[in-house]
Amino acid sequence: MGAEKFAISKSTIERVRQSFVEQGLEAALSRKQPLNRRLRRLDGEQEAHLIALTCSTPPDGQGRWTLRMLAERMVELDYVEILSHETVRQTLKRKKTEIAQPNFKHSPLPLFHQLPSP
Fold it and tell me: Which one, of 67, 72, 59, 58, lies nearest residue 88 by Cα?
């Protein structure tokens, strides 16, 4: 009935109906705030410092930056109080920039168009 008319799923109608019965009209008409939203661990300025650090020359004796070295250096430079290598990975992945080709290890796989033909 209503699901097809409004192009929404039956489960959405059931959820709104249940919300109306249990909590009233206002609750049924307003959107719930997601409970699982996480706050960003780094602000824009801290992300900029991370990217700049990633583009810089790695420490003496190191051929490239590792995620752990980047996290440790960010703390040493007092850009953040604490930072995990996983947050560094997620931040750099989210930025999707081509950064510091010689200093940052990228996947060794060639691009699709560069694969040898069979």
Answer: 67
State residue 88's pLDDT score: 92
21-28 own/partner pairs: CB under 8 Å, 24+ apart? none
54 vs 69: CA distance, rounded Å: 10
Rounded Cα–Cα distance for residues 67 and 54 (Å): 9
51 or 103, greater pLDDT: 51
Cα-Cα-Cα-Cα dihedral sign, residues 55, 62, 42, 46: negative
Around Cβ 41, how many Cβ atoms within 10 Å?
A: 16
Which pTM value belongs to this model? Answer: 0.53
Rg over CA atoms, the chain? 24
Compute the distance between CA of residue 8 and CA of residue 24 in angstroms, rounded to an integer.
21
